[in-house]
Amino acid sequence: MEKIRHPLRTNVGYFLNKPIGFSREFQVDFAQIFIEPDLNATNLKGTFSFSRTREGLLLQADLEADIDANCNRCLEPITVHVCADFEELYVFETRMKEELDEEEVPNDGYIELGVPFRDYLLLGLPLANTCSPDCRGICLDCGQNLNTGTCEHNHGIDYS
Ligand SMILES: [Zn+2]
Ligand SMILES: [Zn+2]
Question: Are residues 47 and 113 both part of a single domain?
Answer without folding.
Answer: yes
